[in-house]
């Protein structure tokens, strides 16, 4: 079931929570709505669900207008961060709940319900918990049961609002891998709200990056990570170093280094910032090519198999971070306080006028 979001607007008093958002979410895909706190992700999800009415715009499921359909008629399944299971019911009864409360004519037989619930519990790999109560499960297990419960009524679309937000980092990381595998099996069109970039990039087929109620960029995880459309997306999707640059007729210069920027071929002597991720900086112990960026090693941090260097250059306000493998680092033989030279392996140059305000919130 594909989802179309067509020019949706939503205000809360004077505050614009969703600002003319249009999206096409393809059938069978897992789409992440990613953005900082307050960017309008949950409001948009609730409008798709029918839990919130938009001021204007339309929601379609598979070409059919849902704008005026009640939430109970839209066929959506939900999993929320704190979507508590019924405490007084066993796991089995919780998952069966949506089926047992169906009107008699639509309700499956007891045996059919039993089969379906046990199949779902196998799917979420918790069939052995059927007779337990929620209090006897871990937080991660409870969320998997909440997902099984949402799937029991065969929703047309599955909406997840920070489903793993309350869990600790390790369980969260396990569950997102598990969700990805589960989605590969069931292929229900799903929309997933998160403010965690890693989670969005790892789990989803498509990422929609939101900010101030608007869509900044949408695309596959690779597209948004490798080709951020603007400075906001660049900063939001991971650590990034900013170098002061000067752009003139398709060439950016950072100190002695020149980088081709054909997209800015008609710029004349403009101030710009070059965005370079820590793993995209090559660190050299000497300036053989003669045009690398001069720096001083300020700190060396070994993190498991990789090494993060902090370096000072006159072309950046902040310390520059560079990441490499331990093996590469040993080859350089650099010590704290040494001179080093930097070359970007990949960069993106934005003119100063394109600059967005810094990311605030989470
Ligand atoms: N019922 C409401 N009444 C007034 N303002 C609201 C209401 N619901 C949301 N808002 C405001 O709309 C903005 C967007 O909220 P929303 O929950 O959609 O953001 P979000 O991106 O999901 O953030 P978070 O990650 O913090 O949940 C916020 O500034 C919020 O305070």
From TrEMBL:
Q: SUPFAM superfamilies per the record?
A: MOP-like (SSF50331), P-loop containing nucleoside triphosphate hydrolases (SSF52540)
Q: Which SMART domains match?
A: AAA
- Work out whether the entry's keyword set contains ATP-binding: yes
The cross-references to CDD domains, in alphabetical order and at most eight, read: ABC_CysA_sulfate_importer
The domain of life is Bacteria
| The ABC transporter domain, residue ranges | 3-237
Whether Nucleotide-binding counts among this entry's keywords is: yes
Kindly name one Pfam family recorded for this protein.
CysA_C_terminal
Supply the InterPro entries for this chain: AAA+_ATPase, ABC_SmlMolc_Importer, ABC_transporter-like_ATP-bd, ABC_transporter-like_CS, CysA_C, Mo/tungstate-bd_C_term_dom, P-loop_NTPase, Sulph_transpt1
This chain belongs to which protein, by name?
Sulfate ABC transporter ATP-binding protein
Name a GO molecular-function annotation. Answer: ATP binding
Species assigned in the record: Natronospirillum operosum
- One cellular-component annotation, GO: ATP-binding cassette (ABC) transporter complex
Keyword list (alphabetical) reads:
ATP-binding, Cell membrane, Membrane, Nucleotide-binding, Sulfate transport, Translocase, Transport
